[in-house]
Design brief:
- The chain has helices at 8-14, 28-39, and strands at residues 2-6, 18-21, 26-27, 47-50, 53-54, 60-61, 66-70.
- With 76 residues, it is an alpha+beta fold.
- The protein has one domain: Roll (Ubiquitin-like (UB roll)), CATH 3.10.20.30.
- The longest helix has 12 residues, at 28-39.
Length: 76
Amino acid sequence: MIDILLFAHLQEAIGDSKINWSELPITVGELKQKLSGKYNVSFQAVMVAVNEEYAEDEMELKAGDTVALIPPVSGG
């Protein structure tokens, strides 16, 4: 199982700050696709950190990983 942490509008759209995911093995890219289908939210421009390090779509996730989904932010 992995823990998925959600921030900003993703947290609001899904209605929670954390998701537990047990469908493994899975890559970061596959996870974003599955989450997008399940929650009808786009994860295309979302940055992903795995265990506090930025990760590419090809990275395979393993049990015990913590995945942070960080949407683009802007401000002034």
